[in-house]
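Progress note, sequence design subtask.
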């Protein structure tokens, strides 16, 4: 059975192909159309997935979406009637038919839909938890999803037994922890969609001086569910629709002037100086955010009596919070996938339907899967023909020569760009599309942040390390395959790798398994043998755009940047 899962008309548009309960391929549309957080139809992704899987659209049995217009209908009705938004309610009713018509129209661009039985809408948060659960390897699990809003839910709690997902409780719009954090992200001057990670980084520079005032903006009940004090927020009045004709998610400020009055600090705007008070607000908001989640997890653990948990939804991209879960709860094991946000819902919706139709629980080995797409050879690439007069190429006979050359350059404190084989599933560079550097060189922080990537100087970098060396540098015993957790660096190691240790003595570590990414694993070992340093600084291969996906992207980014070395498959490319 072939199922095509879609996240569409929502930020981070994506597609996934599932065959008999196993993931064949998945990716985000932004990787191909180069519009970050694209919220339209994932046309190019579907094309790439079908082509590389050698599957025709006529072979697809079902299409799933991670959105259901009938879910939470009574809650939507009540909200719109009480808020005099009858036109919005009519929009909800029309939306389902219009979207299904659009989906069929777009899919027919690939051929006839001969086997397609139905387009099935799976509720947004059910798709979220299905993505995490079916990849976790757990048979029984508690589950928690938290995001901005999806199908009018903003958080849902679950008890899961052998593939049967039971809803415990939910929080509905306008009460949203994701919107709470997003509002403070805007208030601190970061107004682009997806900027929340900047607040997380900034929070380490501050002290939670405003925690009490910010805590008073929420109301917590006995089940540790929360409500927002809506006098501080206005998303419920201005709407929260991230889809528009450009495909780029755009929204207005979600907070009111009351926050400025409460904290006695005006909102910061782009290019205004960051002050200590801004870092203190970030620290305070982060603390409130974390405590709400930890208290809810502990409540669910007590209710379900299950010590394994799956987490999903955009709020679980907050790696600083995620790295503290084990220390603030009694859970024995947790799982967060490499793409727990909206894009992962394309996979989750398809896996949910597959499990229901086959009535046979199939757990996948976490999601250490390579989603490789076929690209032209270097010499056949359009950008290569365009730039060949500006570059020089050295070809390696094998990966051993490639790794040896790369580690030599890194040893000399040079920065390299690294493009190998398949790409990552999710927003983090996991050793396929990376910019790499020697972590012993503290000056490389400003060199990459300010000169190369032109981003804020307070943002930290991740260390990549072989999983069998992980415990020599870091204290927590997490599986950090996806850079999901901020962990403590051992005290005697901090001074050795200053470029990847944040101001609070932590790192968003990345543990690399040989079976997942052998060439990157071997590079780390080679660098270790030559320098005695076990890790490399690793940041994504992109400059103010989505991560490079194709050879074309890699060459264009390399040429327009200050980068001097590009290891592209078995080639070393330098500028003349």
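Output:
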């Amino acid at each position: 059975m072939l199922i095509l899962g879609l996240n569409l008309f929502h930020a981070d548009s994506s597609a996934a192909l599932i065959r008999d309960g196993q993931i064949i391929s998945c990716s985000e549309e932004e990787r191909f159309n180069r519009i970050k957080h694209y919220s339209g139809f994932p046309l190019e992704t579907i094309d790439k997935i079908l082509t590389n899987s050698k599957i025709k659209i006529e072979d697809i049995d079902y299409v799933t979406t991670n959105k259901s217009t009938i879910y939470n209908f009574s809650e939507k009705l009540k909200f719109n009637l009480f808020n005099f938004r009858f036109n919005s309610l009519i929009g909800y009713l029309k939306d389902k038919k219009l979207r299904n018509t659009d989906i069929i129209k777009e899919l027919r661009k690939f051929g006839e839909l001969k086997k397609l039985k139905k387009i099935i809408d799976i509720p947004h948060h059910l798709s979220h938890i299905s993505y995490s659960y079916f990849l976790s390897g757990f048979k029984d699990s508690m589950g928690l999803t938290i995001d901005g809003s999806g199908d009018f839910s903003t958080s849902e709690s679950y008890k899961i037994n052998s593939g049967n997902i039971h809803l415990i409780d939910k929080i509905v719009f306008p009460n949203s922890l994701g919107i709470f954090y997003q509002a403070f992200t805007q208030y601190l001057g970061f107004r682009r969609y997806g900027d929340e990670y900047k607040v997380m980084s900034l929070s380490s520079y501050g002290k939670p001086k405003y925690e009490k005032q910010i805590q008073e903006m929420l109301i917590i009940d006995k089940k540790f569910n929360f409500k927002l004090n809506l006098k501080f927020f206005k998303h419920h009045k201005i709407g929260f629709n991230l889809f528009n004709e450009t495909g780029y998610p755009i929204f207005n400020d979600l907070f009111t002037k009351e926050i400025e009055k409460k904290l006695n600090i005006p909102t910061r705007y782009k290019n205004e100086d960051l002050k200590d008070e801004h870092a203190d607000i970030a620290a305070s908001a982060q603390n409130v955010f974390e405590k709400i989640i930890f208290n809810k997890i502990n409540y669910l653990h007590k209710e379900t009596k299950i010590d394994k948990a799956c987490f999903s939804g955009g709020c679980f991209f907050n790696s600083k919070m995620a790295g503290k879960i084990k220390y603030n709860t009694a859970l024995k094991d947790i799982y967060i996938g490499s793409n727990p946000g909206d894009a992962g819902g394309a996979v989750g919706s398809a896996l949910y339907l597959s499990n229901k139709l086959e009535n046979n629980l199939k757990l996948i080995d976490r999601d250490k899967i390579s989603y490789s797409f076929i690209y032209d050879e270097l010499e056949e690439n359009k950008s290569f023909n365009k730039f060949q007069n500006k570059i020089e190429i050295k070809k390696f006979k094998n990966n051993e020569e490639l790794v040896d050359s790369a580690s030599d350059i890194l040893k000399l404190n040079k920065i390299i760009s690294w493009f190998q084989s398949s790409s990552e599933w999710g927003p983090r560079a996991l050793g396929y599309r990376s910019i790499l550097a020697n972590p012993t060189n503290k000056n490389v922080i400003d060199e990459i942040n300010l000169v190369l990537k032109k981003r804020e100087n307070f943002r930290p970098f991740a260390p990549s390390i072989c999983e069998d060396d992980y415990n020599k540098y870091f204290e927590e015993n997490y599986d950090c395959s996806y850079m999901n957790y901020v962990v403590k660096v051992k005290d005697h190691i901090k001074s050795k790798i200053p470029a990847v240790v944040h101001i609070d003595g932590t790192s968003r570590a990345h543990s690399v398994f040989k079976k997942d990414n052998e060439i990157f694993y071997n590079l780390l070992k080679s660098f270790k043998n030559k320098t005695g340093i076990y890790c490399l600084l690793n940041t994504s291969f992109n400059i103010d755009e989505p991560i490079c996906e194709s050879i074309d992207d890699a060459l264009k980014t390399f040429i327009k940047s200050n980068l001097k070395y590009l290891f592209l498959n078995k080639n070393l490319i330098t500028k003349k």
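The two ends are 52 Å apart (CA to CA). Work on this subtask will continue into the next period as scheduled.
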